Amino acid sequence: MSKSTFKILFYIRKNQVNKDGTVCIMVRLTVGGEVSQFSSKLNIDPKAWDIKQGKAAGNPVKARQLNDLLEDIRTSLKNHYRDIEMHESFVTAEKVRNAFLGYTIKQQTLLELFKKHNDDAQKLVGISKSAATLAKYDRCYRRMEV
Q1: Can you state the angle between helices 61-87 and 93-101, rounded to 10 degrees?
Q2: Tell me: the pLDDT tens digits for 63-86?
Q3: Are strands 23-31 and 6-17 parallel, antiparallel or unpaired?
Q4: Are residues 89 and 33 located together in one domain of the fold?
Q5: 36-74 burial code (b ≥16 CB/10 A, e <16)
């Protein structure tokens, strides 16, 4: 299995300045050439940003705190990357981004969906469904369950 490249870059969006003069710090993930970008939800004065190092410049307390937060984000992204790499067949930038942001797809079984369907159908008995139809749905559900 070939090792994919994994890079994390922090940059600022100079073209979208907030009312207070700060700009948003963005995160760019690159996994095997695939790119995914998202906001870190952190803001900084553009003059205090070191472009080459991708972090806040200088040594004031505020800059150190911001750099610590950026390092926490970097560590979390690396951990998500390793976790996906171990448990899934392949890693994409989108998967790492979604894992970091907490977007997960809840997978349902066919029986769970069918049960929900039958519960919804039961509420419609006498309105748009008959009791005989509901009985057929229930019988079908029980046969699938076995």
Answers
A1: 120
A2: 999 999 999 999 999 999 999 889
A3: antiparallel
A4: yes
A5: beeeeebebeeebbeeeebbbeeeeeebeebbeebeebe
**How does pLDDT run across 19-31, given as a tens digit for each residue?**
999 999 999 999 9
**123 lies in which domain range?**
110-145
The amino acid at 85: E
Q: Phi/psi of residue 105, each to 5°?
A: -100, 120
Rounded to whole angstroms, the Cα distance separating 48 from 117 reads 56
Looking at the fold, whether 118 and 76 belong to one and the same domain comes out as no
The verdict on 139 and 96 lying in the same domain is no
- The helix (H) or strand (E) run that includes residue 80 is helix 61-87
Average pLDDT of the chain to the nearest whole number: 90
